[in-house]
Amino acid sequence: MAAELDGPRIEPRAGGAARQLVVFLHGYGADGNDLIEIGRAWQGVMPNAAFVSPNAPHACGQNPGGREWFPLTDRAQNERWRGVCDAGPVLDRFLDAELGRRNLPPSALALVGFSQGTMMALHVGLRRAVAPFAIVGYSGLLVTEPDATPEVIASQIKSRPPVLLIHGDHDELIPPGALFLAANGLAALGVPVEWHLSPGIGHGIDQEGLRQGGEFIARRLPSGLPRS
Q: Which class does domain 9-219 fall in?
């Protein structure tokens, strides 16, 4: 079994107990430190949120100094599907444990992914019994079961949180067409989805994308959450 997850954290700027939990899921070959500083940039619009960026469970096969949620060898749909299914339960346990540690209900969760982390955020977020209040996915794609019918895919979904997808229009690693495939796929599942294409940006995140991601989450911050 994969090791339990852990990674860097940022406490709420307002002090006291967190009212929301924002979880960053890094890309292939990076680690939790790659995204955690986004939390500091977003503290102004969500001062009561705690941020955490867990390290993926496996050492990266192509970058031993980094981590991976699942291997990427042929980058085929079958491989991605196996990968998200294998890593999903590990991430799900971490989310439940982190919410429990902070005495927060499942509805206080937001997920933010980059690249492979976006694949994980969408896979896990749409399958949680209680929907995250927001998902932001940068430079990623929606992973579906190969050859599955729309009815089968819909039967796998448990929640329909609001989703924002952001992608660079010069991304050569995951082409920008993946944004539109994901947006259309989510819309067909009844998931409320918005998207933004960042002009001149490759496989990365620009300041406008960061601004839009933070504001998207901030607009959906739940208030008056009971402690559980």
A: alpha beta
